[in-house]
């Protein structure tokens, strides 16, 4: 079933169908960035070929057309994550900028000396460093929510950390390095019980799970387009209306203003208050088409496909003597991080590249997590809807070859 279904979807992705180093490409780095379907590529090409224009304020067809498509994406995203209001959808460069926006525009202005921010031990650097910058300036304490050996957040320890001084919790929905799906809804409720705000890093979750910000009751939630089949350079920040309205602008420039004088400037309404300057117009339009593409397939179906692949891949790789998988949470998605004996992950990646296989190696921007597992780096194979059993079999055979080389 997996091969039939996935091979149909695979045809939508031209990059998947090519030869690398004389071998069929097995692209297993979707957690870093997803391949792009032809429909997204075609729409971006159409924009640059026939519909190039800046948006907003242009009183001619090209500008009105581009503006319409740009703002239609905001509506699509609003519906996609069940936002109560389209004005709560802020376009950014990606998850990283979204975190920085909230760190600088919310935490910097509303948190004070003696307050605490909670982060988990599995966070991506982009969900650590922005908070550290503010914490150092303001005298805020950062505390770490511990995890267990399976790569799961220890909820009992999280609850112990939720004291009255905690004003903000920022946690990843799905770990980019482990694939762990965190119990975000429960964690948000616990945070709200002590009047703390909750930021959800949904970069890895957005193309794997259905996200409903109202059901989660998330205060902030962010994700990147390029991890959900859209172009690079565009992301989304969702925030509750009262929070976004209370926050000062993150950057100054065009489009985020109301009236400018040398004496004083007043600012635009949401969402434009946080969208200074010319945005990545073609990328936003491409993001809208990517949302249409995901909706056509259905996130439930995508999750089912990827769960089948994860189970198949886990069982296949576990059969290799000396291979260790990092992150075996009860709830996880299509990421397998592993080591193979004492072979350095970079050597593994270089050798299997000769077999046409693309995986990610290194610390995956999660150095604290690598320290927890007492390893400098891991290999990471990550799957998406264009992955099939043949890709996993190709990885398995290549790893057997690598093992023999180092015996």
Describe the structure.
By secondary structure, the protein is an alpha/beta fold. The chain folds into two domains: 2-28 and 298-401, Aspartate Aminotransferase, domain 1 (Alpha-Beta Complex), CATH 3.90.1150.10; 42-296, Type I PLP-dependent aspartate aminotransferase-like (Major domain) (Aspartate Aminotransferase, domain 2), CATH 3.40.640.10. Helix content is 41%, strand content 17%. The protein has 14 helices and 17 strands. The protein has helices at 2-10, 38-50, 61-80, 95-110, 129-138, 155-161, 184-193, 213-216, 241-246, 281-297, 299-318, 345-353, 367-373, 389-405; strands at residues 19-20, 23-24, 26-27, 89-92, 116-120, 141-145, 166-172, 197-201, 220-224, 235-239, 257-260, 265-267, 323-326, 335-340, 357-358, 360-362, 378-382. The strands form five sheets. The chain has a seven-stranded mixed beta sheet with strand order 4-10-9-8-7-5-6, with helices on both faces. A four-stranded antiparallel beta sheet has the order 13-14-17-16, with helices on one face. Helix 8 links the parallel strand 8 (197-201) and strand 9. Helix 11 (299-318) runs parallel beside helix 14. The mean pLDDT is 94.
